[in-house]
Amino acid sequence: MTLGQHLAPHLPFLRRYARALTGDQAQGDAYVKATLQAIVDAPEQFPRDIDPRLGLYRTFQAIWGSVNGANDDEPGAGRAPVAGGVADGVIGDEAVAHARLARLTPLPRQALLLTAMEGFTLADSGYLLGVDAGEVETLVAEALAEIEAQTRADVLIIEDEPIIAMDLETIVRDLGHDVTGVAVTRDEALAQARARRPGLVLADIQLADDSSGIDAVRDILGEFAVPVIFITAFPERLLTGERPEPTFLITKPFQRATVKAAIAQALFFDRATVPA
C-alpha cells in the first residue's frame, strides 16, 4: 500500500481539525493543501516509524508552526516542529490573516481539539505539539477554563432523536448556555430561529420528516448569520470536498468533551469577529 493510500482515510478528519483550528473552511483547507504538498515534495521526510495518521497530523502541525510561529509567552513556544518554510509559497498571501489567527488560537485550544475532537491520547497530542503529556493536560485545563469564562449564548438544537436531543441540551446547559428550543424538522427549526434568534445552532442532518438539517441551516443562514455545528452519524455526506462544508463537524456517537470543545471553538471565533 502506498503512502497516499495510507493517508487518504484520514484526510477528511484532518480537514475537520484544520477548519476548527482556523475557524474557516478555506483557510483550513489551505493548511491541509500545504501539508500534502510538503509530503509530496519530500516523502522521505515523512515519519515512517509511527502511525500514518499521527505522521499526517505532525506534518500539519509543522506547517501550522512554520506559518504562525508560537507566542513566546505560551507553554511550548518554539517547540512545535517547523517545516522549513514549505508553506510560504502556498499560503503566503494570507500571512496577515494567519498571524491574527495565531494570536486567536494558542496551544490550549490546539490541545483541546486534538484530545477532545480528534481523539488523540495525551502522549500523542504532546508529540504533535512538542510538549510532554503532563503539559498537554495542563493546556487542556486552561482551554476548559476559557470555556467557563465565555460569554453565554442562546443555542438552538435541531435533532429528531429525543435521547440525543436531551443529552445535547444537558451539555449546553452544563456549559452555562441557554437552549432556545429543540426542533425536529426543517420547518420547526426555521420557525424557532425566527421566534428567538440563537447565538449558536447544533444540527443533525437527517430529521424526523425526512427533511434535511442542512437545508434547515441554509434557511436560517439565509436570514441571519450564526455559527453552526453539525452533529451527524454520516460525516461522509459533509466531508466530500465538493461543496462548502461546515467549519465544525462532530461524528455520532459523540463524547461530551467533543461537543464542549466544538461549542467553545465555534463561539470563540464568533466572538472574535465582533468589534470590541
TrEMBL record:
Pfam families attached to this UniProt entry: PhyR_sigma-like, PhyR_sigma2, Response_reg
An individual GO BP term: phosphorelay signal transduction system
Residues annotated as domain Response regulatory: 154-267
InterPro entries named in the record: Bact_response_regulator (IPR050595), CheY-like_superfamily (IPR011006), PhyR_sigma2 (IPR053866), PhyR_sigma4 (IPR053867), Sig_resp-reg_PhyR (IPR014605), Sig_transdc_resp-reg_receiver (IPR001789), WH-like_DNA-bd_sf (IPR036388)
Family annotation (Gene3D superfamilies): 1.10.1740.10, 3.40.50.2300, Winged helix-like DNA-binding domain superfamily/Winged helix DNA-binding domain
Modified residues (4-aspartylphosphate): 204
SUPFAM superfamilies in the cross-refs: CheY-like (SSF52172)
UniProt key word Phosphoprotein: yes
Keywords of the record: Phosphoprotein
Protein known as: Response regulator
